[in-house]
Amino acid sequence: MDREAKLARLLEHPAIWRGRSAAHQQGGLPTGFAALDAYLPGYGWPRTGLIEILVSRFGSGELYLLLPALAALTRARCARWCVWVAPPLMPFAPALASQGMVLDRVAVVNGARPLWALEQALGSGACDVALAWVRQVKAREIRRLQLAAERGRTLGVLFRPRRAAREATAAVLRLSLQPTITGVRITLLKGRGALRGAVDLLRPDWPV
Q1: Domain for residue 9, yes or no?
Q2: Count of the separate structural domains present in the chain
Q3: Which pLDDT belongs to residue 194?
Q4: Using an 8 Å Cβ cutoff, are 50 and 130 in contact?
Q5: Strand 183-191 relative to strand 173-179, pairing
């Protein structure tokens, strides 16, 4: 076997990370925002793994960033569950339906142990995506969530306060949202192969 063939075989190993070019070949889940897709590995959200979205306050429009992808997942032919854990406000079903979401695939979980509920949903294999709003979480708990997402082949979304930006994370992607006069600024804080910098989404793309 010549050197090029050996190298090609080595690069096919799943433990090898080949940067942004390889990440883009994997095919991410489109966000619904072309400018954001261009900055993300795979040109979209990862289909498996935990991502963190940091916000100044819960219920300030962060869910809007996920709605196009959530709608696409719930409309898929073999759609699994879309689980929401401890949302700050009860989802308004008519508004979700107007965005194209199939409500029969949506489940809302409330309780005193949101991290436990999120971990169970991520690792169950029954969900395409599971979202949770959590104010405090430890690094080892994030690691458990990431492993559960990998085990269940699920996209996990953890909404956290922006003050967590300096904390270490095992999540595959982390970004923060900052409202602006014209829309919202999305800063990419972590992501294999992701471009560093910020993305501005303008009205009418984003409600402020």
Answers
A1: no
A2: 1
A3: 65
A4: no
A5: antiparallel
Closest residue by Cα to residue 178 from 198, 155, 158: 198
Q: Is residue 19 part of a domain?
A: no
Do residues 92 and 104 touch, judged by C-beta distance below 8 A?
no
Which of these ranges, 11-15, 114-118, 150-154, 192-196, has the smallest mean pLDDT? Answer: 11-15
Q: Which of 113-122, 159-168, 189-198 shows the lowest per-residue confidence on average (mean pLDDT)?
A: 189-198
The pTM of the full predicted model, rounded to 2 decimals, is 0.83
The residue type found at 44 is: G
Residues 208 and 61 sit within 8 Å (Cβ to Cβ): yes
Q: What is the pLDDT of residues 39-48, one digit of tens each?
A: 887 889 999 9
Q: Which contacts qualify for 105-114: CB closer than 8 Å, 24 or more apart?
A: 105/73, 105/74, 105/79, 105/80, 105/81, 106/74, 106/81, 106/82, 107/81, 107/82, 107/83, 108/83, 108/84, 109/83, 109/84, 109/85, 110/85, 110/86, 111/86, 114/85, 114/86
Count, residues in the chain: 208
Nearest to 173 by CA among 85, 60, 42, 56: 42
- Whether 12 is in a domain gets the answer no
Q: What is the pLDDT of residues 154-176, one digit of tens each?
A: 999 999 999 999 898 999 999 99
**Quick check: is 2 in a domain?**
no
159: containing domain: 27-202
- Residues 28, 68: Cα–Cα separation, whole Å: 13
